[in-house]
């Protein structure tokens, strides 16, 4: 009776000593599991895309419209026109993106170019407000693009790649070999790059949809181009200007003929010398008294 009892006590002591054995920490670079699970097969990584959770979030299918265009008009008071444009922008929640001013000497006119952004919902109201600043609309072009499909496709691409990323993270948690972990990490880096690129494209589309763009150019003809009348003073001033211009043209025309002038001058000098020689020969020498 004592022998079985002693054997039982010995067996319990052995089990207790095994359970109290301290656990060792293993570095990631030296991963070697004592009881490794079956290695990650190549087809498991290939099937990651097939295991994407089909429960995707609802996608916004509302119309996504981009409005953009350009308008050009003539005005008698460009400063007032600019003030009206800026005032309308501030009232409708828009802003001035770029502004340029040019003076053309050939056409004798001053021109202003503005690039504005205005909320899409207020685009038509802003366009109508330009009529009060324009004396004559030379051209107006409005372009409308429907990017709903592109918007939906980009969002779906982001959602699918995020689910794919989660799937590869799950596979990484089950991987037992360093080669498998490195392969999965490469896949994750590629997926994250795709997500970032698609998100940037989506942000750009969202900004274009939210704010419409319009290029505005308006000009005014300067006073010098306008005929002030047909009176004596105007005709006298015009005659003086035209006479001075004719004189300038003659002067520059003569200057352009300088090779011919040099040749003529040389010929005249030769003729003069020849006459002097001839006169000297024809005159008799004076006789002594």
From TrEMBL:
The chain crosses the membrane at residues 250-271. Residues 63-271 form the DUF4349 domain. It comes from Mucilaginibacter oryzae. InterPro entries: DUF4349 (IPR025645). The keyword Transmembrane applies. Keywords: Membrane, Transmembrane, Transmembrane helix. This is Uncharacterized protein DUF4349. It comes from the Bacteria.
């Amino acid at each position: 009776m004592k022998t079985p009892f002693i054997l039982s006590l010995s067996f319990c002591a052995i089990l207790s000593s095994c359970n109290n054995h301290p656990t060792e920490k293993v570095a990631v670079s030296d991963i070697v599991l004592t009881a490794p699970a079956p290695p990650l097969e190549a087809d498991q990584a290939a099937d990651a895309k097939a295991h994407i959770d089909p429960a995707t979030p609802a996608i916004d299918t509302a119309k996504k419209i981009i409005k953009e265009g350009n308008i050009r008009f003539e005005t008698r008071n460009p400063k007032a026109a600019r003030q009206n444009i800026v005032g309308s922008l501030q009232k409708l929640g828009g802003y001035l993106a770029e502004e340029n001013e040019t003076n053309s000497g050939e056409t004798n006119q001053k021109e202003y170019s503005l690039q504005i952004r205005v909320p899409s919902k207020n685009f038509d109201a802003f366009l109508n407000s330009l009529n009060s600043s324009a004396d004559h609309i030379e051209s107006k072009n409005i372009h409308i693009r429907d990017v709903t499909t592109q918007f939906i496709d980009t969002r779906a691409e982001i959602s699918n790649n995020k689910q794919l990323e989660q799937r590869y993270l799950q596979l990484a948690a089950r991987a037992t070999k360093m080669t498998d972990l490195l392969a999965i990490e490469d896949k994750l880096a590629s997926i994250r790059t795709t997500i970032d690129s698609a998100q940037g494209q989506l942000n750009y589309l969202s900004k274009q949809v939210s704010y419409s763009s319009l290029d505005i150019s308006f000009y005014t003809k300067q006073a010098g181009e306008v005929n002030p009348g047909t009176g004596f003073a105007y005709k006298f001033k015009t005659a003086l200007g035209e006479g001075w211009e004719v004189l300038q043209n003659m002067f520059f025309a003569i200057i352009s003929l300088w090779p011919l002038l040099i040749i003529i001058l040389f010929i005249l000098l030769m003729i003069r010398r020849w006459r002097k020689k001839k006169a000297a020969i024809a005159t008799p020498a004076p006789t002594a008294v």
